[in-house]
Amino acid sequence: MQEAVLRKSRTNDRDQEFCEVVIDGLSGAQKKLHPKYFYDQKGSQYFDEICQLEEYYPYQAETKLLPKVASQLAGILTHEYAMIEFGAGSLQKVRPVLDQIQGIKRFIPIDISGDHLRASSALLSQEFPDVSVDPVEGDFSKPIDLGEIQERKLGFFPGSTIGNFTPDEATKFLHNARQTLGQNSYLLVGVDTKKSPATLHSAYNDAAGVTAKFNLNILDRINQEFDSPMSPEKFEHYAYFNAEKGCIEMHLVCLEAHTVYLDDIRVEFSQGESIHTESSYKYSCEEFGALAQQSGWSIERTWLADQNLFSVYLLKADKA
Ligand code: AVJ
Fold first, then answer.
1. Contact between 207 and 201 (Cβ < 8 Å)
2. Of the candidates 188, 115, 174, which has an alpha carbon nearest to the alpha carbon of residue 141?
3. Is 277 close to ligand 1, i.e. is its CB under 6 Å away?
4. Quick one: which atom of ligand 1 is closest to the CA of 214?
5. How far apart are CA 146 and CA 108, in angstroms?
6. Residues in contact with 228: Cβ distance below 8 Å, sequence separation at least 6, in sequence order
7. Which residue, judged by its Cα, is nearest atom 10 of ligand 1?
8. Can you say whether residue 284 is alpha, beta or left, with left for phi > 0 and alpha for psi between -120 and 50 degrees?
9. For 231-290, how does the pLDDT look when each residue is reduced to its tens digit (9 = 90+)?
10. Which of 1, 58, 95, 97 has a CA-to-CA distance to 227 between 20 and 30 Å?
């Protein structure tokens, strides 16, 4: 009996970490939420929809570039490798790489959205029966124990996910990745480039309003975990290029003053104030080269998409 009761209360347990982070993020002077919380099941679907948008050039540009990257990589990566993808999502981008590089024997995708990840991993495994696909549900921004891996390691971090880190955080991530991936490793990383603010603006303010839904979905997620305190109709998607910082900032701007309660915590929203939900940093080749160099990596190769819309770097681990 006792055990049954305990088990029930555990299933009712909400995502405690999420709740604490939300309360913390909405309690400061500049309210903020971490972009990793966009990717619940619905959010991951919205993101896949964003990638199909005409305006969202990063996905198109990188997807077009990767087959070329992969065919040239095949000449560089002549050993056996275990490939580790950080923040893997729908596992679309790894396909051209697995197609071209026979040396990849294992593929370990890490993602926070477990169901989405397991479904995509099952499909990938059918398509590449010679590659052992071992998904890991987890937060790649924290250290993760991947267990024993015999092969040399090739990290894969596409999609300019690295842009969600501040430059300092990106340096820390690259440094940790150097530790995790070890001697003789490589890291293949997709990075969005600096470009005209107008192009950036339309990529994050698409005409169909998918990015707005993606951004607002984080409020639905709060409503699921707490007792529906948020009113999404009182907020508006807002994204702009912060030239000084070199990033797109996404916000949810409050349209009318109101008060919400997160459990017993009172949170006041004034009209026009915002919740900062995402920063998406853009790097020139010089800027990204400097980050890599500070973190134990050297740039082995650089690939640029048409009109320099996107960049892919192959980083090689410096000798420890
Ligand atoms: C997945 C972080 C690369 O910053 O462009 C897309 C997320 N946000 N549209 C990005 C995103 C709004 C995306 N990253």
1. no
2. 174
3. no
4. 12
5. 9
6. none
7. 280
8. beta
9. 999 999 999 999 999 999 999 999 999 999 999 999 999 999 999 999 999 999 999 999
10. 1
